[in-house]
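Design request, tokens follow.
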């Protein structure tokens, strides 16, 4: 199992942390900061999800006038952790 701590950029969330199981499933996803209800829902929806598939779905999602979002930043965190 691999633990990931990611510092997002351009969003309200300050830290995104999660674990990747050996078969590349997302577990224990937690956002620190940001829109609490929405981010808790994302965490519940992605528990046990395939990491690559989740990253593909969340990529390029925006928040208001921003060019990114917490979901998009999670996508970046996942893809970065899969390369390591």
């Amino acid at each position: 199992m691999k633990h990931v701590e990611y510092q997002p950029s351009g969003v309200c969330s300050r830290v995104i942390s999660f674990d990747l199981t050996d078969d590349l499933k997302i577990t224990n996803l937690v956002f620190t900061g940001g829109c609490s209800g929405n981010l808790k829902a994302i965490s519940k929806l992605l528990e046990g999800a395939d990491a690559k598939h989740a990253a593909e779905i969340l990529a390029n999602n925006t928040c208001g006038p921003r060019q990114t979002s917490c979901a998009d930043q999670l996508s970046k965190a996942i893809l970065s952790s899969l390369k390591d």
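Comment from the thread starter after seeing the answer: thanks! The helical segments are 36-46, 51-58, 70-83.
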